[in-house]
Amino acid sequence: MFQEGDKIIYPMYGAGIIEKVEEKESLEGLGKYYIIRIPNGNLRISLKADKSRLMGLRKIGGRKEIAETLCKVAGTTASHSENWNQRYKDNLEKMKTGQLFEVVEVVKSLYDREKTKGLSSNEKKLLSTGKRIVLSEIIYSYDIDLEKAEDLLANLVLNC
C-alpha cells in the first residue's frame, strides 16, 4: 500500500506523487483510489489501489539502486531481432513492466542501435519515452532538475 506523498513510478508515464488516497464509488462499488500527479505531461491519474500492483506501480528507486542499475546496464551488450517490428514489441513489453532495469536496458539498446543502424519512428518514440521515464526517476530520487539529471545520467553511464 502507498501513502499520500509517496514518490512512485507509473509504467509508461514515469515518476509521480500520490497526492491523495480516497474512497470512491465506481461500477465495482466503493473502493480505495490513489490520486497520482505525474508532473511530466501535467497528468492527474486516479487508480484503484487494489490494481496498483497489476499496473506495475512501484516506489521510486533510491540513489544507490539507480546508480547500480545504470552501471549494470552500461556494461552489457544487447542482441535483438533484426526485424524492427519484433524488436519494438519486445522493447515495449519491457517498458510496460516499469522496472528500472528493463527500461534502462531498452533505452541503452535503442540508443546503441540508433548510433549504428537507425531507428524506426516507433522506436524513436519508445527511446524518447524511456529516456523521459529514467530521467523522471533520477529527478525525484536525487531531488534535482532536468538538466542536472541529464548530466548525472551521462556521468553514471560513462564512469561505470
Concise description?
This protein has 160 residues and is of the alpha+beta class. The chain has helices at 63-74, 84-97, 100-116, 121-142, 146-158, and strands at residues 7-10, 14-26, 29-38, 43-48, 58-59. Helix 1 crosses helix 5 (146-158) and helix 4 crosses helix 5 (146-158).
- Number of helical segments with 4 or more residues: 5
Low-confidence stretches: none
Which range best describes the helical content: under 10%, 10-25%, 25-40%, 40-55%, 55-70% or over 70%? 40-55%
Structural class: alpha+beta
Rough outline: globular
Number of domains: 2
Strand order of the largest sheet: 4-3-2-1-5
The appropriate CATH architecture of the largest domain is Up-down Bundle
Question: Can you identify the CATH superfamily of the largest domain?
Answer: CarD-like, C-terminal domain
The first-level CATH class of the largest domain is given as Mainly Alpha
